[in-house]
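User: Could you go from structure to sequence for me? I need the amino acid at each position, not a summary. Structure tokens:
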């Protein structure tokens, strides 16, 4: 719609410049095209008005090794590198949506050979997606990353927790991380 009105006004000024119209005729022509644009639903917008952007983003890591957690135990990523909007709580490991919208979350788990760590991201206690980092039968340090886009209402909570069993190992030293951003 804006493009059509812009083209109409550009055309009007172009024709006015080539047709040797008087200034009053140019103003009249402009007002006529402006009326057409308004009739088509064009709304005048001030160029300097910046929309309020609700920036919500966080990034956190795990500083301590986790071993033998219970089933459905929250993984608390205790080091916060970024927390725009202050929606992530490093003491509980819970992200609380400050506004409605779609949020994108990613989490990475590093385990060691002979160990495993199966986790899930949950919204208000309901599983959304899984992550499985399995080092059993392997040498080295397996790492896995999972991602979830979640539609949230203000006050909804998201966190990472262990799945149904125990015997986990997640490596600390900032190798495991949890992050999210409002799209």
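Assistant: Here is the amino acid at each position, in order:
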């Amino acid at each position: 719609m804006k493009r059509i009105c812009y083209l109409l006004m550009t055309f009007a000024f172009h024709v006015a410049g080539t047709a040797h119209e008087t200034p009053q005729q140019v103003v009249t022509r402009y007002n006529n095209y402006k009326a057409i644009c308004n009739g088509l639903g064009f709304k005048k917008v001030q160029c300097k008005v910046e929309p309020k952007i609700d920036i919500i983003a966080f990034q956190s890591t795990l500083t301590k090794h986790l071993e033998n957690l219970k089933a459905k135990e929250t993984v608390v990523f205790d080091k916060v590198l970024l927390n725009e909007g202050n929606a992530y709580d490093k003491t509980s490991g819970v992200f609380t949506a400050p506004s409605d919208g779609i949020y994108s979350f990613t989490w990475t788990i590093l385990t060691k050979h002979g160990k495993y760590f199966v986790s899930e991201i949950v919204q208000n206690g309901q599983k959304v997606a899984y992550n499985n980092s399995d080092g059993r039968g392997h040498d080295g340090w397996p790492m896995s990353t999972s991602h979830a886009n979640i539609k949230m209402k203000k006050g909804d909570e998201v966190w990472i927790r262990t799945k149904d069993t125990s015997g986990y190992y997640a490596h600390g030293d900032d190798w495991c991380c949890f992050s999210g951003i409002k799209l």
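One structural detail worth keeping in mind: The CA atoms of residues 69 and 175 lie 18 Å apart.
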